[in-house]
């Protein structure tokens, strides 16, 4: 039969349609089941996760850095402050082409290479949707120019912040130090949560040493944002807690007087209260402006400081290393008494040259023909080298090393500042370890007058003379005097540490040394007498000069010139002192890197420091009431050169 005659199979078609319909329905049911299962999985099983993510899209956590604690001197003079300023902030997630944006932005607000480099460094450690500072301390003109063009830069905004400011600038740069931007090195050891939102950290000085006290505790805000991530309202706010305010022992009036006394000549001075170790002044000349570092010092400014021949970045008081010269003689004399090698009445004949038995090389006194027969008091007063040459040779360098280390030589004083140098208290063991060479008797001889391998810092010498002034009782020098938790909290003095025993066994030994030091200032033969630093001062001053050679003499000639420029090129000038001599309340160490003599150059600086200190005392006596009467048993010597 032809196809046209074939009958239609209606039943088969119905069956096939039914099968297809059932299959389609089953697929639809299966798809709906999978979809429902997926909805259940997302809405029920992962509800907390997606709820959190949804909330994160509409609510941002903004960290609030704590205000940094302020720093004051002992009288409440502000040394480190926080002042309001403005900066450019960038939210990296909102920027598609960062380099292009920075290029366009620099046409509106000038960006230095340093700004861009520091910004890109900060990008490595930023949190999602947290702003990253691009340029600090915007000027009014820069803010105005950006405000007009802000619509061109989504994700960039002006933000207020508190920036560190040092009102007295260079005067306290080496004491207070400075803060600067957090870098990769800092990130390696910082607590990320505690420093969330913080851009600066203490880099040097008190700012670094007491970072934990000054930093405080951060707060936060929960900010609701719209689809464009623009803030709409603050949902929750926890205020940050400011860091502690610090009150230092230092006195800004004494500090300024000390700086002025140097008149720009490189050197350092430290003044300490020997009764408790409080540092009253700590001066390094020259200095620098710490404000340059706060928001990022420019490369030209940093290069100028780094290559300045006077090294203003060097903290001379804490890290400057100098031979102490004759300032060690009181300590050497005390060692001789304490170790039983001398009595105060023992005498030595000074003829102008000292010889080690069996050797032909001579070691000279400053006085060409010697000082004659002298005891300890006279040897300190006139700074007679021969007395201390022979004493050093008697004691030996090992004993000298052991005894003088009690006064802090060759070690850290423990002052509350970072990066203190230890200096060098020479010994045969030290030389073997350092140079792998033997020790010679001649090195012991010159060590007895503070030459040779000796190296001290002004802080070490100030600590030693303060300890000596207090009868050998050590008080660790310190700058922090009190703290305060906020403006409405009380000022809390630091607890005094327990007093350590004296390093001096026999007080009579110290009396002989003190008498010699009084003679340095008040006896006409004293090496500081001609400078007149004791005249007109109401208290008796005990002191010691030191003139350390910067290089050895090549011949046997005596220096007779009065050319101060020539002498300063050869010498470092020292002066140490304390007053009142009977009950000391201040001890001072002064060094001039280029000074003719300790008595004529360094001692007058110390006197100006003492004058400033005296002016701070509540019941200071008049200048005529307590002036020492100078002993008159020696004629004035023209060769009291130190």
Structural features, described:
This protein has 642 residues and is of the alpha+beta class. It has two domains: 60-240, Alpha-Beta Complex (Penicillin-binding protein 2a (Domain 2)); 252-289 and 317-616, 3-Layer(aba) Sandwich (Beta-lactamase), CATH 3.40.710.10. Helix content is 36%, strand content 18%. The protein contains 23 helices and 21 strands. Strands 2, 3, 4, 5, 10, 17 and 18 form a seven-stranded mixed beta sheet that branches. Strands 12-11-21-20-19 form a five-stranded antiparallel beta sheet. Strand 17 and strand 18 (491-493) form a beta hairpin. Helix 14 (329-338) packs antiparallel against helix 21 and helix 15 runs parallel beside helix 21. The radius of gyration is 37 Å and the shape is elongated. The model is unreliable at 622-641 (pLDDT under 50).
Brief write-up:
The protein is an alpha+beta fold.
In the CATH hierarchy, the third-tier topology of the largest domain is known as Beta-lactamase
Q: Would you report the number of β strands? A: 21
Average of pLDDT: 87
Taking Cα atoms only, what radius of gyration do you get, to the nearest Å? 37 Å
The largest sheet, given as strand count, sense and whether it forms a barrel, is: 7 strands, mixed
The number of helices is 23
Q: Report the sheet-strand fraction.
A: 15-25%
Helix content: 25-40%
Given helix and strand content, the structural type is alpha+beta
- Give the second-level CATH assignment, the architecture of the largest domain: 3-Layer(aba) Sandwich
Quick one: overall form? elongated
Uncertain spans: 622-641
CATH secondary-structure class of the largest domain: Alpha Beta
The CATH homologous superfamily of the largest domain is termed DD-peptidase/beta-lactamase superfamily
Count of domains: 2
End-to-end gap: 145 Å
């Amino acid at each position: 039969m032809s196809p046209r005659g074939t009958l239609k199979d209606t039943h088969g078609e119905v069956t096939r349609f039914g099968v297809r319909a059932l299959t389609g329905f089953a697929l639809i049911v299966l798809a709906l089941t999978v979809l429902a299962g997926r909805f259940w999985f997302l809405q029920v099983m992962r509800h907390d996760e997606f709820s959190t993510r949804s909330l994160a899209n509409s609510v941002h956590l903004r960290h609030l850095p704590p205000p940094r604690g302020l720093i004051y001197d002992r009288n409440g003079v502000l040394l480190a402050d926080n002042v309001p300023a403005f900066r450019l902030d960038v939210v990296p997630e909102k920027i598609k082409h960062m380099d292009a944006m920075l290029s366009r932005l620099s046409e509106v607000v000038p960006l230095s290479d340093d700004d861009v480099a520091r910004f890109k460094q900060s990008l490595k450690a930023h949190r999602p949707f947290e702003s990253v500072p691009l340029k600090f301390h915007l000027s009014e003109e820069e803010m105005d120019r950006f405000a007009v063009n802000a619509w061109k830069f989504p994700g960039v905004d002006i933000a207020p912040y508190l920036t560190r400011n040092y009102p007295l600038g260079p005067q306290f740069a080496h004491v207070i130090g400075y803060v600067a931007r957090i870098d990769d090195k800092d990130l390696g050891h910082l607590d990320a949560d505690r420093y969330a939102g913080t851009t600066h950290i203490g880099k040097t000085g008190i700012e670094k040493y007491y970072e934990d006290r000054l930093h405080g505790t951060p707060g936060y805000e929960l900010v609701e944002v719209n689809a464009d991530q623009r803030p709409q309202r603050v949902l929750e706010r926890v205020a940050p807690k400011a860091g502690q305010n610090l009150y230092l022992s230092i006195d800004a009036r004494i500090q300024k007087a000390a700086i002025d006394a140097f008149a720009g000549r490189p050197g350092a001075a430290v003044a300490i209260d020997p009764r408790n170790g409080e540092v009253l002044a700590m001066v390094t000349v020259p200095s620098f402006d710490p404000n340059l570092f706060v928001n990022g010092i420019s490369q030209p400014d940093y290069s100028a400081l780094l290559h300045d021949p006077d090294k203003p970045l060097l903290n001379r008081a804490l890290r400057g290393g100098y031979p102490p010269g004759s300032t060690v003689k009181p300590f050497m004399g005390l060692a001789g008494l304490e170790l039983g090698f001398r009595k105060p009445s023992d005498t030595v004949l000074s003829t102008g040259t000292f010889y080690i038995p069996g050797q032909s090389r001579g070691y000279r006194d400053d006085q060409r023909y010697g000082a004659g027969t002298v005891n300890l008091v006279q040897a300190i007063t006139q700074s007679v080298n021969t007395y201390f040459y022979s004493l050093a040779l008697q004691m030996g360098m090992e004993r000298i090393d052991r005894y003088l280390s009690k006064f802090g030589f060759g070690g850290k004083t423990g002052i509350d500042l970072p990066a203190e140098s230890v200096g060098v208290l020479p010994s045969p063991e030290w030389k073997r370890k350092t140079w792998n060479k033997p020790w010679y008797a001649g090195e012991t001889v010159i060590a007895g007058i503070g030459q040779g391998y000796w190296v001290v810092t002004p802080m070490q010498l100030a600590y030693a003379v303060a300890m000596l002034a207090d009868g050998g009782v050590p008080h660790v020098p310190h700058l922090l005097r009190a703290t305060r938790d906020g403006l409405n909290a009380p000022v809390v003095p630091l607890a005094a540490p327990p007093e350590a025993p004296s390093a001096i066994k026999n007080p009579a030994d110290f009396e002989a040394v003190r008498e010699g030091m009084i003679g340095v200032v008040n006896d006409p033969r004293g090496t500081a007498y001609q400078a007149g630093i004791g005249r007109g001062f109401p208290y008796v001053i005990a002191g010691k000069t030191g003139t350390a050679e910067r290089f050895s003499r090549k011949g046997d000639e005596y220096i007779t010139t009065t050319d101060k420029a020539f002498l300063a090129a050869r010498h470092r000038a020292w002066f140490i002192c304390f007053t009142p001599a009977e009950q000391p309340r201040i001890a001072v160490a002064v060094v001039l890197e280029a000074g003719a003599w300790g008595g004529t150059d360094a001692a007058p600086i110390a006197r100006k420091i003492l004058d400033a200190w005296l002016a701070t005392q509540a019941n200071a006596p008049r200048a005529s009431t307590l002036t020492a009467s100078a002993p008159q048993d020696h004629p004035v010597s023209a060769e009291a050169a130190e």
